[in-house]
Amino acid sequence: MQYVSAEYREAMKQAHRKKTYMKISIKLINQEAQNTAEMQNEGLTYFANAVSSFGAETVDKVYATFEQRFAKVDGSMYFLPRESPEAVYYNAGIVTEALCKEGATPGIMIHFHTDDPLDIKGLTLEFGDAYPVRLSVETDEGVTVYENAGSKFTTEDTFNNTTFMKIAAIEMVNGAGRFRIQNILFGIGIIFDDSKIVSSDMKSCISPISEGLPSIDFNVTVVNMDRYYNVDNEDSAINYMETGQELKVYYGQTLNDDSVEWVKGGTLFMKEWSADDKLAKFGAVDIFEYMQDEYRKGEYRPDGITLYDLAADVFEDAGVRPDQYWIDPYLKKVKVYNPMPMVKHKECLQLIANAGRSVVMQNRDGIIMLKSSFEPEKEVSANQVAEYGNVKCLLEEQPYSEYASFESRYARVDGQQFFIPRSREYIQVGYVSASISDAEGYFDENPVITLTMESAYTFYNLTLWFGSIQPAEFWITTFNNGEEKNRFKSRSIGEKTVVHYDFIDIDKITIEFTRAKPNNRIHLRRILFGSETDYHITYDDLFTAPYGTRLEKIKELRVVRTIYTRGTDLKDLTSDEVELAAGQYEEYEIEFGHAVHDLMAECLIEDVEQDFGAVIEESSSYWCRVKITKPPQTDTKVILTIRGYEYSISTSMESVRLNNAGSVQTWNNPLISSVEDAKNLTEWVGAYYKNGNRYELKYRGDPILDYNDLTYLESRYVENLMVRLEEVSLKYTGALRGTLAARRKI
């Protein structure tokens, strides 16, 4: 769910909403040019970075240098380190050594290492504050001079049959200065706003237990009355579109003060496009659509590998950069041993997510996320506790009592408090600090209570139940993966204190009591975590009443454990006749239907081994690559045989009974081998199947809802009915409307 202002939520809940807007941007980038561009280093300064300018890395630190009207003394620039082989420089982008002055036109030369010349539609350059007001672009077809009026330059000119591009500065805005380029995109950005958009439709779906892969499909129709997007128009941008180009969607909502708040709808990737004389249509999908290659590196690991490291290896093998994915640190706690089967990279991520009780999804920035999807176990501890206090009981619902003690205005004679026993057999009095505050209410050592979650967790509000006397001040600090996220002070404090705060993706909270009433301890009886959602879908949001379906009951859920044992019998695993070419160091890739280990290769002619240097160059449990290192002098047919051992595989079951009647569901994830992982998976998947109510909703539409979100759904029979969204559809035709499919969460 996207986090928006209270004013936005108020505007969306009104009976009559104000105007809704939409805009779409498409990066029309020539991916081949972007990926193969190589810049010559001649003429660049020693602190220039000629590589990062073609990627996503930004220039956010600028060195102050002696150029006309360039250096600033407002703290925004950095001193330049002396030139040295050991020196480390910030990314400064492309910076020429020569100054642009008195007819000198410093420039950069870029070559494209492709088999064929490229056709490039448009060019986008980011210069920063020191930009050229005149520049030239030279390609194989000639030189073009451009006027420029800002830090970002864009042209929609086409550069056809291009093998190189030289970009030079003719005149700089500040006079004599170096030519700087912070970022280069070989292409342009196209923007459609609501004046061009006729309609759009975005559909997304997910399995909360990673039973299948998530998907997002987006289609938009725009006005094409000027026929710019006709395929027969040689200047049309549609002829330069490629699958995989980035498309971003934004929705804007007018608030009650007539300002517009924008919500990013998603980052998707182009799949298809078409046009006639009136309308143009574009379709885009999620990143998983383009993860079609297989992962072949699965192997049995006797010492195990964490799901976190396994996912990182899958991403690396798929060519996904670290800034394009996020893995929940919780997966570092789950270790698996079995080999990953030889399936597509996206299917590997699905298996990893399921084994770790997580979901794999794409967020609205186009980042692939592996995120835990269960309510984590919580632990509580304290840096100090009175001898008769108990910090562990804070998360449990138990009877509460108090001991009378020598604290200011604390002991009572109304029969509601107990004497502290000498036997040390204490009743339940909740948490009591060992320290007593001084006459001003301060402590020598502040009592600190720490709440630790098994994995990052999202919830809304925290309730603290204090005893008959309450503290004067406390601070709450939130963390995620060891990093402090926020720190804030308590407001009004009473016996029941509700901390109104959105705890988003938090795995640790500290509550530090910095002041009490004079000469008192801290007495805390209970801590309650708030709801997992604060979003409500009411009948006012719906066009029709919810359509509910009671799904087939699951009587029993069984999770299969797969146990691998190393084989002991050497076997001929595969044999195939191949022809070795004379003098050729050939390679052969071989797949296996069963998991194998300790492979060796040999070449046979009439069952006699020939020394052609057949070696296993690379192997995994289901695949190997063989190289011929001593090829024959003449073309020779041989039987290429791979020998080795097959793993022996056995299975075991963990099960849970969900209902007295219904079908039996068997769940088989090949990564699951340990009893603990199988039990965790059984409980997690079982809880999902036990909640058998599914709802279909037609509603007014809200761009902030994501698949896998939790929301409350108004019900005539159930108070605070919570559901998890599995399918989200949003249509725009000048206004919003949508559909939801959700499953009840108990």
Structure description:
A hairpin with a 2-residue loop joins strand 39 (596-605) and strand 40. The protein is globular, with a radius of gyration of 33 Å. The protein is built from five helices and 49 strands. Strands 1, 14, 15, 16, 17, 18, 19, 34, 35, 46, 47, 48 and 49 form a 13-stranded mixed beta sheet that branches. Helix 3 (307-317) runs antiparallel to helix 4. The chain starts with 5 loop residues before the first helix and ends with a strand. The chain is mostly beta strands. The protein is 7% helix and 47% strand.
Could you give a quick summary of the protein structure above?
The chain has 746 residues and is mostly beta strands.
Average of per-residue pLDDT values: 91
Percentage of residues in strands: over 45%
Structural class: mainly beta
Ranges where pLDDT stays below 50 over 5 or more residues in a row are none
